[in-house]
Specification:
Blueprint: E1 2-7, H1 16-37, E2 42-46, E3 49-54, H2 57-64, E4 72-80, H3 83-94, E5 103-111, H4 118-132, E6 139-140, E7 147-154, E8 157-161, E9 165-166, E10 178-182, H5 186-197, E11 201-205, H6 209-216, E12 223-225, H7 230-237, E13 241-243, H8 251-255, E14 263-264, H9 272-283
Parallel strand pairs: 5-6, 5-7, 10-11, 10-13, 11-12, 13-14
Antiparallel strand pairs: 1-3, 1-4, 2-3, 4-8, 4-9, 7-8
Helix pairs in contact: 3-4, 5-6, 5-9
Amino acid sequence: MSLLLVRYAEVGLKSESVRNQFERILINNILDSFAKEGIECLIERERGRIFVETHDVDRAIKRLRRIFGIASISSVMSCSSKLEEMRSFAVEYSAPLFARRSTFALRVRRTGVHDFSSMDVARELGSAILEANKEKEISVDLVSPDLEIFVEIRRSKAYFFTEYIPGPGGLPLGSQGRVLAIVDRDRDVVAAWLMMKRGCRVIVLSDSRDLVKILEAWTPRLTVEPSAQVEQCVRKYRALAVVFGYGSDEMEEIRKVKLSVPAFFPLIGFDDQEVERKLREISA
């Protein structure tokens, strides 16, 4: 099985108890999303990191990129964090990556107690790689290298990778309250998506199947109701707020909103071009 290293950002800023709770929610969201797509996996977590083992790396990465709370993903290979083993592994790992006369940089970070520093590792591994690839005439360039090799050392393991694949960021879906979103047009989709990114479980009120499908790609469990039943759905789902896609040029419509719960307008500061860009990103 191949190994994926999953990082989160905002979750790591929370207190220990809240972080543990959010990590559990995030892992459950990964499992739900993978189950919907028929992707088998094993998941382990460490402080600040989640590790996903799977045979279907490409499909797994595609799904992880649509799970809120994930900052980035990397496909990694691992070895022991003993310095000699890392030297040998670095040579083996990097050998197929170099073209003739290419440049490289090692980016090392470390967590835990070790008898070496990150700079020590970079120096030792860099020297070993240069020596093993003398015939290719490779060199080090720390500013603008052709290849970056990242090494993340966590306690007794070292993880090697060459790429950070961005995720949507935000907070895990379901970690915040439940809201309704009126989705009648494209910009409403963006407003609902932004609330999902903030961790809210969104109940979509819409009669447009095409708009709903865009949001369904971001959650395996999306509840949809007819758009006319706003107050009824507020009571039914105990929603904390209702979300609209109105912009600053629609003040008259905003004034007409009268509800028993707060109304949110996530796009109030967005211009039309920003909304269109975000919609393309969401729909891609």
